[in-house]
Amino acid sequence: MKDFTKEELKNFNGQDGNPAYVAIDGTVYDVTDIPAWQGGKHHGNLAGLDQSEAIRQSPHGLGVLEKLPKVGKLVD
């Protein structure tokens, strides 16, 4: 598990061959192999960012996180 700053996380945006990671409540998840996150985008949400608020507003909610690989934590 790696510690990511918000600046470092931006590099994992799912574009130009980079993996796609999102942070939710301080945990960083790998969404690279999730078809809905193809190209680092999912319903207007972008990989490489903290998407804690967006997931709370999504229809699937936090339960979907159980299926995602954890790769680290978001630090200040």
How would you sum up this structure, described in words?
The structure is a single chain. 13% of the residues lie in helices and 26% in strands. A hairpin with a 2-residue loop joins strand 2 and strand 3. It has a single domain (2-74), classed as Roll (Flavocytochrome B2, Chain A, domain 1), CATH 3.10.120. The chain is globular, with a radius of gyration of 11 Å. The two termini are 16 Å apart. The strands form two sheets. Strands 1-6-3-2 form a four-stranded mixed sheet. It has a two-stranded antiparallel ribbon with strand order 4-5. The longest helix is centred in the C-terminal third of the chain and has 6 residues, at 52-57. The protein is built from two helices and six strands, in the order βαββββαβ. It is α+β, with helices and mostly antiparallel strands and 76 residues long.
Task: Write out key terms for the chains shown.
single chain, 76 residues, alpha+beta, Flavocytochrome B2, Chain A, domain 1, two-stranded antiparallel sheet, 2 helices, 13% helix, globular, Cytochrome b5 heme-binding domain-containing protein, Cyt_B5-like_heme/steroid_sf, Cyt_B5-like_heme/steroid-bd
